[in-house]
C-alpha cells in the first residue's frame, strides 16, 4: 500500500475529530488499528475509509459506550448496529426520566419537608401465611419477574382453591435498583384456617410470617412509580432511625389498589417496614 493512499495520524486526527492521544489509545485496545506503522519512526498511517469508522467511534464514546462495547458494536452490520443504538437510546431516555423524577421528588422533600410529603404511621401487622415466589434481581428485571410470579401464584391459589386473606405484597431483602440486586419475594396471603395448597409447582413455597409492628406510609399515582417511590422508602427508613426503633425484617410493598399500569393515578401502594423496640423484652 502506497503512503499517498494513507493519511498520517495528524491529518487523520483532524478528519476524525479524535485526538492523537485517543487514536493511540484505540490502537492499543484494538478498536481502531492503523493501516500502516512506519517501522523506523513508529508513525501511524490510516486508510481514508477509516475516517468514517473513527467518526462512529467518536459518536459512540460521546454516548458513554465503553471501549470494549465499542469494539463489539463495530463488528456488527449496519442493521444490527442501528438496533443496538435504538436499544441504548431507549435505555438512556428511561434513565433520564428516572433522574428527572428523582430530582423533582428531592426538591419537593427539601421544600415541603419529608413529614409533609409522606406521613408515617405505626400499625400492628397480623401473622400471615403466604404463597411465595422468589428471585434475586435488580430493578431492570423486577417488573417482568413480578408479572410472571403473580400469574403463577394466582394460578396455584386457584387450584386450592385458597381464600385470600389480604392484598398481595412484595418483600425486598435489600436494595433493588439499577446498580444493586437483592432477594425479592412476591407474596400472596391466604387464610391459614381454610383450604391449603397441594402439589405446588417448583419455585413456589408456603411461608408463615409472624405478627409484627409495621412503620407505614402510602403512595398513590405517579408517586408510586419508580424511581419516585424511593423517596417514600427513604422517609420511612429515616423515621424508624430517628424514633429509635430497630429494623426487624425485609420492607414490604403492599398493593392496596393496583391497576396493572405503573403510573396510573388509581394505584395505591403501602410501604410497610417491620420494626421492633430494641429495649423491649423478647420471648
From TrEMBL:
InterPro entries, sorted: DNA-bd_dom_put_sf, MerR-type_HTH_dom, MerR_fam, Reg_factor_effector_dom_sf
Coiled-coil residue spans: 82-109
Entry keyword Coiled coil: yes
Annotated keywords: Coiled coil, DNA-binding, Repressor, Transcription, Transcription regulation
Domain of life: Bacteria
Keyword Repressor: yes
Listed GO MF terms: DNA binding; DNA-binding transcription factor activity
PANTHER family recorded: MERR-FAMILY TRANSCRIPTIONAL REGULATOR (PTHR30204:SF69), REDOX-CYCLING DRUG-SENSING TRANSCRIPTIONAL ACTIVATOR SOXR (PTHR30204)
Protein name listed in UniProt: MerR family transcriptional regulator
Organism: Streptomyces termitum
Amino acid at each position: 500500500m502506497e503512503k499517498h493512499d494513507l493519511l498520517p495520524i495528524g491529518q487523520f486526527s483532524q478528519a476524525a475529530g479524535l485526538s492523537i492521544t485517543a487514536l493511540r489509545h484505540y490502537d492499543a485496545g484494538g478498536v481502531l488499528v492503523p493501516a500502516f506503522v512506519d517501522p523506523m519512526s513508529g508513525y501511524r498511517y490510516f486508510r481514508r475509509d477509516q475516517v468514517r469508522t473513527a467518526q462512529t467511534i467518536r459518536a459512540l464514546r460521546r454516548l458513554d459506550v465503553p471501549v470494549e462495547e465499542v469494539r463489539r458494536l463495530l463488528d456488527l452490520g449496519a442493521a444490527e448496529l442501528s438496533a443496538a443504538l435504538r436499544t441504548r437510546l431507549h435505555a438512556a431516555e428511561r434513565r433520564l426520566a428516572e433522574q428527572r423524577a428523582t430530582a423533582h421528588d428531592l426538591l419537593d422533600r427539601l421544600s415541603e419537608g419529608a413529614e409533609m410529603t409522606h406521613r408515617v404511621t405505626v400499625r400492628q401487622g397480623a401473622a400471615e401465611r403466604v404463597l411465595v415466589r422468589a428471585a434475586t434481581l435488580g430493578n431492570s428485571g423486577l417488573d417482568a419477574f413480578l408479572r410472571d410470579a403473580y400469574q403463577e401464584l394466582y394460578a396455584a391459589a386457584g387450584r386450592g382453591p385458597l381464600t385470600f386473606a389480604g392484598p398481595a405484597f412484595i418483600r425486598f431483602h435489600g436494595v433493588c435498583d439499577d446498580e444493586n440486586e437483592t432477594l425479592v419475594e412476591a407474596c400472596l396471603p391466604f387464610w391459614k384456617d381454610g383450604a391449603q395448597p397441594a402439589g405446588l409447582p417448583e419455585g413456589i413455597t408456603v411461608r408463615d410470617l409472624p405478627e409484627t409492628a409495621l412503620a407505614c406510609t402510602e403512595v398513590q399515582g405517579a408517586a408510586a412509580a419508580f424511581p419516585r417511590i424511593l423517596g417514600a422508602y427513604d422517609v420511612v427508613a429515616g423515621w424508624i432511625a430517628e424514633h429509635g426503633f430497630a429494623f426487624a425484617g425485609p420492607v414490604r410493598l403492599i398493593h392496596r389498589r393496583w391497576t396493572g399500569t405503573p403510573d396510573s393515578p388509581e394505584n395505591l401502594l403501602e410501604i410497610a417496614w417491620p420494626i421492633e423496640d430494641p429495649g423491649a423484652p423478647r420471648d
